[in-house]
Amino acid sequence: MKAVAGRSPVFFNPSIAFCRQSTDFLCHTVPSPPYIVSPVSVLRSCSSPISSNCSRGITTVSAAASSSVVADVDADAVDLSKGLKELYKGCKSWKWNGYDINFIVRTSDLNPDSPPLLLVHGFGASVGHWRRNIGILAESNTVYAIDLLGFGASDKPTGFDYTMETWAQLILDFLAEVVQRPTILVGNSVGSLACVIAAADSSEGLVGGLVLLNCSGGMNNKAIVDDWRIKLLFPLLLLIDFLLKQKGIASAIFNRVKQRKNLRNILQSVYGNKESVDDDLVEIIHRPTNDEGALDAFVSVVTGPPGPNPVSLIPNISMPVLILWGDDDPFTPIDGPVGKYFSSLPSKLSNVKLCMLEGVGHCPHDDRPELVHEKLIPWLAALPGL
């Protein structure tokens, strides 16, 4: 693994890492970052399955929620930038299996016939994590972005067992019911893996292509057993799973993790461009962690089954695939088992193109969006008609 000055490499993806901060052990998650959810608690007044006139507002943390925060000295709500507020004002709600799913759509007036894009965030992130991409991509393609169940402003049902297959089915149903056209799926981290599973399972021609940004090998690292670092830590991962299933312990860890100062430190460790870790990004992640059911989602993802392995899925996908990989990613390093697999694909499969992004971390689209757009937009323009 490439050594990064000033930080210890993190060897596993959605799992728990224990890092030394000052003299204390800080427990923090390492999800395929953007890391935790778009931060808005949404006021819903819609009764129809799809509504463009949902009454939505950004709420502050309730007294009940804030009282559960352990020693969060910065628990007061932080105001969002005008641009992020405007992004959230455009959100809509779609009813899926009885749950409210948050999404946004920006229509391209210049190229209405170009294939639409669906942006799918990583573990804990949300539509807000695409803040630097939606406007630019909407100049040439209609753009949808969705909050997966359990994250952002989407419902977070308590006691729900989250799986990669559930999110993949949600994506396919969204394409069938909302987009209703062959669509290019663009995902980051576990969002990428959900897109791969959806593409492999799609039998109705609704997926026209894939863009994978530092794709994860599983919902958590129990899938990555062929890395000696994971083998070494595997007993510890099982112990962490056991501890997280104890409600009191899980709550204490989660409350520590979601403090803004800790989130900022985590994000700084996985972004190549430190300037991209701004107040908006911290709020995108922080605010939804106070929603009811957020703790359950966190525990379920970290302790649940890793899901289908992309190694078994990618060879069965014949559609165009663009892989964009930040070479400064401590979660899924290019020299790790997942990175090595994806970097080998262009020599084996003619439909796959790989572009390495220098000095970029685990979330290329938010870390260095200009580098992503430089590769993505020409690739989209060259796609055959869908």
From TrEMBL:
Q: State the superkingdom.
A: Eukaryota
State the GO CC annotations. chloroplast
Positions of the AB hydrolase-1 domain: 115-369
Q: Which GO terms describe its molecular function?
A: chlorophyllase activity
- Keywords carried by this UniProt record: Hydrolase
InterPro entries, sorted: AB_hydrolase_1, AB_hydrolase_fold
GO:BP terms for this protein? chlorophyll metabolic process
Name used for this protein in its record = Alpha/beta hydrolase fold
What organism, scientifically named, is this protein from?
Zostera marina (Eelgrass)
